Amino acid sequence: MTELQAGQGAQPIEVPRIDARPQRYRDVLIALAAFIVLALLPMLFGSKQLLDFVIRCAAYGLFATSLNLLVGYTGLISFGHGMFFGLGAYGFGLMMQKTGVAIPVAFVATLAITFVVSVVIGAVCVRLKEIYFAFVTLAFQMLIHSTILSWQSLTGGDQGLRGGIPRPPFLGIDLSNHLHLYIMSCALLVIGLLLMRQIAQSPFGYTLRMIRDNATRASFIGINVWRAKLTIFVLAALFASTGGMIMALFVSGAYPEFAYWTISGEGIFINMLGGVTTFLGPMVGTVLLLILNDTVTRLTEYHGIVLGIVILFFAIGLRKGLMDFVVEWIAQRRGKAGG
Q1: What string of DSSP letters covers 4-50?
Q2: CA 79, chain centre distance (Å)
Q3: Which terminal residue of the chain has fewer beta carbons within 10 Å of its beta carbon, N or C?
Q4: pTM, entire model
Q5: pLDDT for the residue 143
């Protein structure tokens, strides 16, 4: 049995200890199977477009799923989460261009920079109520975007980082080889999703759900709400930054659009498409959005109108994401079958 302290001087509440190991082992096996399937795709389909699509899915999927840790699991709607996507892209690109360090070193250093920035920003934002949290995160994102535009000597201004990103081989991996980049992107995606899944299913993840449902009650039973929110804010920033680094490698550069408010809007849109109550909802939404973007932009120049109609359909018609709708439909079918 474990104990949950219900406040200073109160009697501890005993709750049963749940063995999460079978679930964890199953998640690891699913992750390995998913990676094997992704790694076999180049052998089954020789299309470079397919590989490019999966790399983009890896970048935006990590970003959108990390956003759902805030939105779906904690109830924190961030309008500025894209700043960490842009920070990852620019931090990694500048590290490789200016210092010439090994790629793993630049990767870790970029995460360290993201950690420091997210702690500072998060310490301010998570103290605020929901609506103020949303708009203050947006304000910080616009500040970072303005810094990128104005600091031309470092960032290239509105032209972005030019000259490409050096990709020196390491441990037998050459990211200038498109296949190697594809495999690395798939590995980062699977590892990132597995780690976020473990966070969501951990006791900390259920603490976040409690805060989402009733922060006052969570605080009353002894949970440090501010610390829990700050922790998930920082963790989400690290995963979003990883997505930004994948995108920087994919385009061999970084552009101000990566840190603009529209990237956060796309993250919210992805979560609306896929759903926020299921873990894989954001990944489904990522695939849908990229397919929709690629298809609509080829068929018409009025892609904004089409995307707006799709948003209205999900917001007003279904009132939930696709995965939310599917899970609810399956539950209803099982209920009828059981009845």
Answers
A1: E--STTSPPEEEPPP--HHHHHHHHHHHHHHHHHHHHHHHH---HHH
A2: 13
A3: C
A4: 0.89
A5: 95
The yes-or-no verdict on residue 295 having pLDDT over 90 is no
What is the Cα–Cα distance from 50 to 290, expressed in whole angstroms? 12
Phi, psi dihedral angles at 313 (to 5 degrees): -60, -45
Could you tell me the sign of the dihedral formed by the alpha carbons of 165, 170, 175, 176, in that order? positive
Higher pLDDT, 17 or 154: 154
Kindly state whether residue 14 falls inside one of the protein's structural domains: no
Asked whether the beta carbons of 132 and 247 are under 8 A apart, the reply is no
DSSP-derived 3-state class of residue 290: helix
Q: What is the helix (H) or strand (E) element at residue 3, kind and residue range?
A: strand 2-4
Cβ atoms < 10 Å from Cβ of 132? 11
* 292 token code pair: 């929709």
For residue 316, the SS3 value is helix
| More reliable by pLDDT, 163 or 112 | 112
DSSP string, 134-181: HHHHHHHHHHHHHHHHH-HHHH-GGG-S-S------BTTB-TTSHHHH
CA distance 40 to 232: 34
138: CB partners within 8 A, 6+ apart = 79, 80, 261, 264
Q: Is residue 229 part of a domain?
A: yes
* C-beta of residue 81 within 8 angstroms of C-beta of residue 67: yes
Is 251 a domain residue?
Answer: yes
User: What b/e readout covers 281-300, taking b as 16+ CB neighbours within 10 angstroms?
Assistant: bbbbbbbbbbebeeebeeee
Give me the domain span that covers residue 180.
Answer: 20-260
pLDDT at residue 321, as a whole number: 80
Indicate the average pLDDT of the chain: 89
Structure-token match 């932009």, residue found:
297
Q: In angstroms, rounded to a whole number, what is the distance separating the alpha carbons of residues 285 and 291?
A: 10
CA torsion angle for 310, 327, 51, 109 (degrees, to 10)?
Answer: 100
Q: Is residue 295 part of a domain?
A: no
State the Cα–Cα distance between residues 329 and 339, nearest whole angstrom. Answer: 15
Count the domains in the chain: 1
